[in-house]
Design brief:
The protein has about 375 residues and is α+β, with helices and mostly antiparallel strands. The chain has two domains: about 190 residues, Sandwich (HSP40/DNAj peptide-binding domain), CATH 2.60.260; about 100 residues, HSP40/DNAj peptide-binding domain. It is about 20% helix and about 25% strand. It contains eight helices and 17 strands. Strands 12-13-17-16 form a four-stranded mixed beta sheet. Strands 3-11-10 form a three-stranded mixed beta sheet. A hairpin with an 8-residue loop joins β1 and β2. α2 packs antiparallel against α3. The longest helix has 17 residues. It starts with 9 loop residues before the first helix and ends in a 16-residue tail after the last helix.
Length: about 375
């Protein structure tokens, strides 16, 4: 992890407590990211800086392992126990050697071959290179139209993630200089201290904070951390048939890896706008169509709009009740196999607000012709099923 994380309160940045759940952290991030996203705050440098801080905090707290490392290091060194006041350590380096190392970032073995010989105390001491580390996953959101959700769309997405500082290329040292091996731990990043009797305790070196190196002349851009926030705009493909609230995973589009590690993934939460006529139920589209009483009673062929192309004709049989649903095959949303779903048409009998004199006479004639038949009689029948 980056040494400059020690001095940052990521929980405070996101406005959550230290015992916040993963869901609470995600909700807080999404709200703050929406409020401060550069795309909605054009030219607002303060909002851009807040967005970078929010993204950096989320990239750490959203990953269980990185959050654990952050909490442990804050507990161990946050009170200043790792060195003298002012944050500098033996050798003139910044806290933590002023750069990422160990499990988190640049490793001195990348510069010196990973082998340190002639260590005091006899024998040769070998330190193997740290393995490649996968980049962090990044989350963002995208809003698309109802039609784009059905067809698929390619969107420009701007993301901010933690990456190696471009000026020092992740070393944490000013251009033209390199870190040096920590004189207290000889590059191992660990120290063993006797606690009395037969027991000894191994802990991260307090001089370099477990990095194995110190930086005498820190990079002015990243202040020796070796890491920086990087904003990237990329073209992301949202597949056809995506649903509102669906989370899309784009492999390798997240933060860059360290020491040759693979990049993380980008997760896009998609928000689909509503349509004035159509709804969606799985792979099927839905629409509600009004019909008149005579169409429902006598039957009719009606015209129904579709999302694409011209309208379709639908035959409504006589005696159709209000609320009945018909199916227009092949007029719905695309399925995963590429075939279209159906259009579900629900008819509702429309009752006019007012009647002309002729219409009123016709309805009264219908009432007389219907006789005394009571459609609610079965509701009062006794001895029937409960």
């Amino acid at each position: 992890m980056s040494s400059d994380w020690i001095g940052k309160d990521f929980y405070r940045v996101l406005g959550v407590g230290k015992d916040a759940s993963a869901d609470d952290i995600k909700k807080a991030y999404r709200k703050l990211a929406r409020d401060n996203h550069p795309d909605s705050k054009h030219g607002d440098k303060a909002a851009e800086e807040r967005f970078k801080s929010i993204s950096e905090a989320y990239s750490v707290l959203s990953t269980p392992q990185r959050r654990k490392e952050y909490d442990e290091q804050r507990t161990l060194f946050g009170s200043g126990a790792g060195g003298p006041a002012g944050g500098r350590f033996p050798g003139g380096g910044m806290p933590g050697g002023g750069m990422p190392g160990g499990a988190g970032g640049f490793d001195i073995s990348d510069l010196l071959g990973g082998i340190f010989t002639g260590a005091p105390g006899g024998g040769a001491r070998t330190r193997t290179s740290s393995p490649p580390r996968r980049g962090a996953d990044v989350e963002t959101e995208a809003s698309i139209s109802f039609e784009q959700a059905l067809d698929g769309v390619t969107l420009p997405l701007r993301t901010t993630s933690d990456a190696a500082c471009r000026d020092c290329r992740g070393t944490g040292a000013r251009a033209g200089t390199v870190p040096r091996v920590c004189p207290d731990c000889e590059g191992t990043g660990m120290q063993t201290s006797a606690s009395g009797g037969l027991f000894a305790m191994t802990e991260p070196c307090r001089s370099c904070r477990g990095r194995g190196m110190v930086v005498d002349d820190p990079c002015p851009s990243c202040h020796g951390s070796g890491r920086a926030s990087s904003s990237t705009t990329m073209q992301a493909r949202i597949p056809a048939g995506v649903r509102d609230g669906q989370r899309i995973r784009l492999r390798g589009k997240g933060a860059s890896g360290e020491r040759g590690g693979h990049a993380g993934d980008l997760y896009v939460t998609v928000h689909v706008a509503t349509h004035r006529l159509f709804g969606r139920r799985g792979d099927n589209l839905t629409i509600t169509v009004p019909i008149t009483f005579d169409e429902a009673a006598l039957g009719a062929t009606i015209s129904v709009p579709t999302l694409k192309g011209g309208p379709v004709s639908l035959k409504v049989p006589g005696g159709t009740p209000s609320g009945r649903t018909f199916r227009a095959r092949g007029k719905g949303a695309p399925r995963r196999d590429g075939t279209p779903g159906d259009l579900l048409v629900t008819v509702e009998v429309q009752v006019p607000d007012s009647l002309s004199s002729a219409a009123r006479e016709a309805v009264q004639a219908l009432r007389v012709a219907r006789g005394d038949a009571d459609p609610r009689a079965s509701l009062f029948a006794t001895g029937g099923r409960s």
